[in-house]
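Thread: Newbie trying to understand structure tokens

Hi all, I'm a second-year student working on a class project, and my supervisor (Dr. K.) asked me to get a predicted structure for one chain before our next meeting. I've only ever worked with sequences, so writing a 3D structure as a token string is new to me. If someone could post the tokens and maybe explain what I'm looking at, I'd be very grateful. Here's the chain:
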Amino acid sequence: MLSDIALALFVGLIFFLAWIAYASYKGTQSIQTCPQFELADPEELPPIIREALQDYIQELQSLNFKLISYYHIFITQNEPPAWELRFQDPTSSKYCSLFALQPFCEMQQTSIVEMVTFLQDSTALFTTNAKNYGSFKPFPSEIKQNLVHASINDLFQAHNSQLSKSTVSPIALEPDAFHTKLMEHYKAHITFCVNSGNFHWIEEGKTYRHSFKNAVRLAIKIVLENWFSPKDNRTTPTINQNTQVEYEVQTFLESRASKTAETKGQSKWIVLASLAAFTASFATQFEPIALLIFIGAIILHEGGHLLAMLLFGYSAPSVLFIPFLGALATARKENASLTEKFWISLAGPLPGLILGLGIAIVGNFSQESTSFFSNWNESIWKETSIILIILNLFNLLPIYPLDGGQIADLLVFSRNPYLGCMYKSFGALVLCLLGLSNPLMLIFSIVIAASIPASFKIARWRSELRQDLRKIPEPDEAAAAQLIFTKLKDTPELSYAQKKAIASGILELQRTETAPWLSRIGLSIIYLLCLVVGIGGGIYSLFSPRQLEAIVQDLGKSESQKREAQFRRSVENFKQYASQQNKASLRQEIKTETQKIQNNPHDSTAYLRRGYARLALQDIEGSIADANLVINQFPNTFESYYLRSQAHQLAGNLNQAKADRQKGNEIRWLPKIAKATQEIKQNPENIEALMRRSNAKQNMGDHNGALQDYNTALKIKPQNTDTLMKRALLYQQQERYPEALKDLNLVLSIDPNNAWAYESRAEIYFDMGHPDKAKADLTKLEEFFN
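---
Reply by user tm_fold:
Sure, no problem. This is what the structure looks like when written as tokens:
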């Protein structure tokens, strides 16, 4: 229990750090421009801006400040411009800027008042209500007072107080001169921050961005600010709702029309850092070669998504690797069509699935003939094909939010607002069930489930707007946005950012909903074809015909029956191998495996195959030599000890054969016993772990230990026929026939049609000298097959 809690806390910490890294990455992607203000006559100020800021304007006028100009502020290239209103006091020594950052419906957070005075020594005094997160080095030519919760009057008093304490007199500047000096000051400040390592130039003197280190500091400070600092309770200017809607729509359309600029030279470091963290999170779950294959499969998968996005004209592509889970490829396009989204989703799993199937098929053929794959270690190409097929086939399944689930949602479920939400809920439930045995998957499912309530809200609004939106021609996005924001004006608790996300989602779903049915049917056929061919090809590639036959034969059988059938098949396969293989084919196999060993001296599978072929040809010394070579290179390979045991037994060295068999059993079964024991300590009633441990002990020859585990399991579940059958077989092996009969009789009283129990009881009756009873059981057994 404690270990699970520790794991959950650890994973939570990883997710928090991943979120900080992602937020920092987004911060570095925000391209900011050096000030390039366009001054305008205050009489031309848009009425909606004047109305929104009327309370601020009147308060500044009461302090004898005069509105002298306004202009747009181009803070970042990724967002529409904001507004700044500039005021001047009668002495021309104090200026005040009122920043109305977009959108003004969040004015309580984004309206910034800043008073500025330049002193005789070129130092600038700033007094502002903007927050200071302390992520920059102090600028020597600047004195800054940050009074976050202060009113305009408080800012005015604090500014005058600081001026009265200064030994340097202020400068009286005309508006144009003040503007020029302020722009020079801003540019000098940005250059200072670049030289200090806080910013990096993108285009020197024009555009810049945060350094990653500074972005991390900012992200952490903002998180702590939101968690622990008191909320800002300043009053919000009240404006007419219709005016607010008008401005929100204007802002929304401007943001969708703006092009996201790409950041040069930064994203690759974020990608590499996240890839390193992702690799470290899986390092203990894979062998080194398998880990490299797995990472390559993930990169191929996400690369397929990114390539498709670029081909369809998406902008700002990026990929982020998420430790313990996977990766996420993202890009931006506001008017993507249903067909484009379909191929982008399919472009991830399809290339890897095709490659995995191709490697498996060509690899299978290469076992019969010489090819490129003959030079590979057989286990490497098999592992490559298995990872590629399983990873991409799983992603192709129609379970949201996997790629296949997104395709199914796109083509079928998203047409109905509520049906789409129910489908997403089903996907979260499936992931939750999978997460019962995997805490990481469980956390992922919880994250998905947390977004579902918001999906239902969007579904409600979309359902209410559905008919009206259908009446609007598709290209008329402005009319659709007007309709959506008018609907959302009755939800004052929503911020503009939330409204923007809702509007974008509704427009996106509306565009896919109006896609032609012919396109949906055609794309659905393509998806189903890929899924069916993928499943069929995966089965064909991963399982031999004999393995498939065994799977079919084992359907409906208990675990013990399956193991018994597997043992009998292995004996039969060995007999067929011994009888069908002639000396020529065995020599050819030795030659083939020798070639593989020459190409890769560490190919343990080739040594073992050659060793068994030599053993079949009675080359005992050669077989032992191959076994020794594997043992020297890979001491924990139990198959090599089994091979040497058989060779010694054929040579008559029974003691050595027994010792090797015991060593092989220890390597094979002791770790399984240890793992099961740990699980039983955590849950003493874990029957499945008890059965695995008893099976391992029985294979180790510890019959008493196995019997003890069977007894414990039966105390927990007394009428478990599978456990009773296993204990009966163990009693039979020990020739404890009365105990065995007692268990078999109990099995048949619970399950009168258990054919295996009749067969086992007949064997015991024959061994005990009761042929009549044995024949009666065999007669009963024949009835099941007639």
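A couple of things are worth pointing out once you decode it. The longest helix spans residues 654-682. Residues 475 and 617 are 78 Å apart (CA to CA). Feel free to ask follow-ups in this thread.
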